[in-house]
Amino acid sequence: MVTLAEVAQHAGVSASTVSYVLSGKRSISAGTRQRVERSIQELGYHPNAGARALASSRSNIIALMVPLRTDMYVPVMMEIAIAVATTARTHGYDVLLLTGEEGPDAVRRVTGSGLADAMILMDVELDDERLPLLRQTNQPSVLIGLPADTTGLTCVDLDFTATGALCAEHLAGLGHRDIAVIGEAPAVYERHTGFAERTLDGLRVRSQELGLRVLHRPCEGGYDVMAVTLARVFDERPRTTGFVVQNESAVEPLLALLRQQGRAVPEDVSVIAVCPDQVATQASVRLTSVAIPAQEMGRRAVEHLVAKLDGRGTDEVVLLAPELTVRASTGPVPSAG
Amino acid sequence: MVTLAEVAQHAGVSASTVSYVLSGKRSISAGTRQRVERSIQELGYHPNAGARALASSRSNIIALMVPLRTDMYVPVMMEIAIAVATTARTHGYDVLLLTGEEGPDAVRRVTGSGLADAMILMDVELDDERLPLLRQTNQPSVLIGLPADTTGLTCVDLDFTATGALCAEHLAGLGHRDIAVIGEAPAVYERHTGFAERTLDGLRVRSQELGLRVLHRPCEGGYDVMAVTLARVFDERPRTTGFVVQNESAVEPLLALLRQQGRAVPEDVSVIAVCPDQVATQASVRLTSVAIPAQEMGRRAVEHLVAKLDGRGTDEVVLLAPELTVRASTGPVPSAG
DNA sequence: AGTCGCCGTCGAAGCGCTTCGACAACCTAT
DNA sequence: ATAGGTTGTCGAAGCGCTTCGACGGCGACT
Questions:
Q1: Which of A81, A329, B41, B118 is the 20 to 30 A CA-CA neighbour of B300?
Q2: Assigned CATH class of A160-292
Q3: Coiled-coil annotation: which residues (chains A, B) (predicted)?
């Protein structure tokens, strides 16, 4: 391993000078800088991360806590994680991957050991047990998701309330009167992950204003479960003409079942999905959808964190505005009779 | 931040004694050990990661390089990543998430800076540009995937050749004579990621032995693309009765299209997928499949790496035996006429 | 010409830990 | 009783870096 001292010797300067060339924290003459930079090149020097962390008490690492469960749409998680890693690198940070498994202990461990300078938490529950810890350490953090109490926290999330409202508006605008919401798996609601409830709230409130009748059914996804759910929906509300699907793994089963029952999309029933664009465009019917801006969320989370680490940045809740893209799965309500 | 020295003072021993209690590298009397452990508890001590890394030249971090692209089945990647993180923790390691973006530079950076003690590389190409670097550093590494030349490397992967063979055997055993392989996206082949080609090789070789005729078509997934692909297949080989699908995002489109064309699965055509069990059981038809043991691969990769780090462990290629599970998508070939 | 201030560089201290050699204290075998 | 071997603990050195204060040299003022 090449050390700073060796670079210094090779360049004929002192160690501290090399350090200042690297960090830019003091001015260095052009000549010296170039000599040092050449030596670094020639020797293939890479600063030792441990020594750096020890001396500067900054590890240049951001911890990312991803959920262990896989009952939520995994590609979204992955996309966020990759966006976090990529964005972090552009700011000179690396990303430490923590699974939810260790729970609050992981927060203690990482904070206590100085392993990471900051944390990003995904899959935050309404009343998450990691939040008190986060508030009491002075380690910067950003949540992707929205807990019940956001005091002293920075959160980035899609505005799911507005998402729900947007779906209601679109369907109401097309003349629909009875709509069904195919929600996330029951476990997601039991866990109080918030986003599912927020979507539903937004949708219900706006529906009421617009005179829509809403039937909500959680659904685990998969064909068999979806078949049962769908049967119940039409049983209870035979005049349902609009569907809002929140659980991506229920989308394709729903479309297949509707087709099988001779209900054409979008002629007889309209379907809106809340899902990444990729899913919407690759489905068997090109889906009208509200996108989940996974990359954007990851990127924004990192940028807020970096701002905090630089002493800029404040506690703040960032809700990304939802965008509804009309594709081929929604249309005007069929004329009665 | 609580330091070792403070713990030592609190417990009335020297710093080195506390260190030895922590590492277990020298024997410590029961009494002293207990006193130290109590002090650690009471003070809430966490060893500083940077200092540790500097003094011991071990960071207790494993770097995991995941592909940036998302043209491969993402949930598999995610499952591997999570298995890696979880398994690593049980061995006292944390995981650093690197994206493929930086390419070989990331390897240099991580190796050179001592940021990580070892690396796991996913999505390895046949002639991957990171491999020469890996061979010349003495940093332990494990590949998930199989490059062309494995000398001096440790690899963990599903035995895709055997997977292909297994599919051929199953279909041949059911009396099929003409089969089609719906492969990965063309980009995957162009990139020479190996696994797609290996599956095909295994399938072709065994098919020849068994007298099967094979038609291979790369396919990007999605309904429109699949429709075109399928039409061509039946155009070229009207008597095709068996399908092997390697691209998970082509599975559901294929099933839908077959249904739409009035070809019943498994009565008229049989379909085998190479995919995680979860996909196989949640599809519109319960799919006969060869599982991709993502968790197992992640776990094994870490265990090999830890073995190497402990001075045990050797360079070795581990190919996991494929397992075919018969479900409801394959059956005997329909009697002619 | 003398003083002030700035720029560029250096030396040294110290970050919190691991680890090596030293050394009491004790036990066993002669 | 004494030599030799354990066992448990300590002190000190050092890992490679950052950062602070110091200082020589120079140009810009008066």
A1: A81
A2: alpha beta
A3: none
Shortest CA gap A206–chain B (Å): 34
CATH domain A4-47 topology: 434 Repressor (Amino-terminal Domain) (1.10.260)
- Name the residue facing B99 among A61, A86, A283 (closest C-beta): A86
In chain B, which residues from 255 to 274 place their CB closer than 7 Å to nucleic acid strand C?
none
**How far, CA to CA in Å, does A335 sit from each of A175, A191, B141?**
9, 41, 65
Size of interface A-B (CB pairs under 8 A): 153
Q: How far is A74 from chain B (nearest CA, A)?
A: 6
B82 to A99: CB separation less than 8 angstroms, yes or no: yes
Q: What superfamily does domain B61-158+294-320 belong to in CATH?
A: Response regulator (3.40.50.2300)
Torsions phi, psi for A96 (to 5 deg): -100, 130
Q: Which of residues 48-87 of A touch strand C (CB under 7 A)?
A: 51, 54-55, 57
A47 contacts B51? CB cut-off 8 A: no
CATH number listed for the domain at residues B160-291: 3.40.50.2300
CA-wise closest residue to A126 among A200, A198, A219, A204: A198
Instruction: In whole angstroms, give the CA distance from residue B27 to residue B21.
Output: 8
Q: Is the CB of B336 under 7 A from strand C?
A: no
Q: pLDDT tens digits for chain A (337 residues)?
A: 899 999 999 999 999 999 999 999 999 999 999 999 999 999 999 999 999 999 999 999 999 999 887 666 788 999 999 999 999 999 999 999 999 888 899 999 999 999 999 999 998 989 999 999 999 998 999 999 999 999 999 999 999 999 999 999 999 999 999 999 999 999 889 888 889 999 999 999 999 999 999 999 999 888 889 999 999 999 999 999 999 999 988 999 999 999 989 999 999 999 999 999 988 998 889 999 999 999 999 999 999 999 999 988 889 999 999 999 999 999 999 876 5
Tell me if A283 sits within 8 A of A245, measured CB to CB.
no
Which chain B residues in 7-26 sit with Cβ < 7 A of strand C? 15-16, 19-20, 22-23, 25
A153-191 in b/e burial notation, b at 16+ Cβ within 10 A? bbbbbbbbbbbbbbbbbbbbebebbbbbbbbbbeebbeb
Å from the B99 CA to the D21 C1': 42
Spell out the domain ranges in chain A: 4-47, 61-158+294-320, 160-292
Q: Kindly give, in sequence order, each residue whose CB lies less than 8 Å from that of residue A146, ignoring residues fewer than 6 positions away.
A: A124, A155, A157, A160, A194, A195, A198, A317, A319
Are the CB atoms for A183 and A217 separated by under 8 Å? yes
Q: Which nucleotides of D are covered by protein (CB under 7 A)?
A: 7-12, 14-21
